[in-house]
Amino acid sequence: MQYGGLVKLQNYLLYEILGVKELKLTNVDKGINLIKKRLSHKRILLILDDVNQLDQLNKLVGGYNWFDSRSRIIITTKDKHLLNAHQIKLIYKVKELDRHEAFDLFISWNDFTRTRHLNDDYVKLAKSVVYYAKGLPLVLIVLGSHLCGRSTGQMKAALDGYKRIPNQDIQEILKISYNALEDSVKEAFLLIACFFKGKNQNNVIPTLESCDLNPKYSIEVLIDKAMINIEGNNIWMHDLLEEMGKEIVRQESPNEPGERSRLWFHEDVYRVLTEKTGTNKIKGIMVNLVEPDDEICLSAKSFSKMKNLQLECYFQYAS
Fold it and tell me: What does the pLDDT read at residue 270?
């Protein structure tokens, strides 16, 4: 879209199929008419990859009568709502790679096996990478690219580092869907990532409503974009999406947790409350106490600067 818009895509579509260079469309409506006229009797295979706007479907593939009935059109998108809005009935949700597929993809990246023998240490490390990626091919490719050519010791150190501070390239890939969300849906996503993963949506929805959000709409949007899923009425998300959401909040103030919008890590909460460094940027706090006899001695001043605190503090023992 950023390299000429729909007119250029229509030109490209017609040129690739018809092989006629002199077709120079000047507007989208002319492109629609030409696509229907010139392709309606041709048997074609058309793949539209990474669709992110409904207008792309309306102007490139329109209705079923645009193409011969023997044609096949494949559309990939991160947003199921676009397919539903275009009345597409045959929808396939791509599954995450299983551990064997993920292992094969990782070791094949940049031909690992050509430069190293798959000894026990390497196999163990590769399995750790597979576990970390949780079946996401792009994550495996990024990690394969970053770790290729390194010793097993260097690879282990890098992977341990990613568990503390996520890999920036992976974060940017995962943030594509997040950046496209409306502000209120972003807020709901961050709250779920920081506080409510695994919680019953019947309990989460009233809490988000108390934060002046529209959680029922937000949850539906996040489901359509495959950013969360509902299992047994509980809200779940991929571990790396949870990590991405928490990293977005951490980056609000990497060194001063009292300047962040949400606190969940017990050491950060302890520091902010005992040192009274909370600010009006804090919107919510939740912490799991590690031991039943853990105690935090507080005074009213611990919360005096948190004028925008929307969620009460939940203190619960970690299981």
Answer: 87
What's residue 121's pLDDT? Answer: 83
- What's the N-to-C CA distance of the chain in angstroms? 49
Token code pair at residue 189: 């996503």
Please give the pLDDT value at position 163: 83
Q: How far apart are CA 103 and CA 160, in angstroms?
A: 18
What is the value of pTM for the model shown? 0.84
For residues 68 and 175, give the distance between their C-alpha atoms in angstroms, rounded to a whole number: 38
Please list the ranges in the chain whose pLDDT falls under 50.
none
Q: Distance between CA 269 and CA 138 in Å, rounded?
A: 34
Q: What is the Cα–Cα distance from 257 to 268, expressed in whole angstroms?
A: 6
Q: Which of 202, 292, 284, 297 is nearest to 246 (CA)?
A: 284
Longest dimension (CA), the chain: 79
Task: Yes or no: say if 134 and 238 are a contact pair by the CB < 8 Å rule.
Answer: yes
- Provide the 8-state DSSP code for 78: S
Show Cβ contacts of residue 223 under 8 Å, excluding neighbours closer than 6 positions: 80, 229, 230
Given this model, what pLDDT does residue 116 score?
Answer: 54
- Provide the β-strand partners of residue 230: 235
Topology given in CATH for the domain delimited by 176-245: Arc Repressor Mutant, subunit A (1.10.10)
Q: Which helix (H) or strand (E) holds 249?
A: helix 239-250
DSSP assignment of 257-298: GGGSSEE-SHHHHHHHHHHT---TT--EEEEEESSTT-----
Give which of 242, 243, 135, 247 is closest to 197, Cα–Cα: 242
User: Which residue, among 49, 139, 95, has the nearest Cα to 229 in the 3D structure?
Assistant: 95
- What pLDDT is stored for residue 272 in this prediction? 92
At residue 266, the pLDDT reads: 85
Q: Write out the residue limits of the CATH 1.10.10 domain(s) in the chain.
A: 176-245
Half-sphere CA count of 46, side-chain side, radius 13 A: 27
Helix, strand, coil share (%) of the chain residues, nearest 5: 55, 10, 35
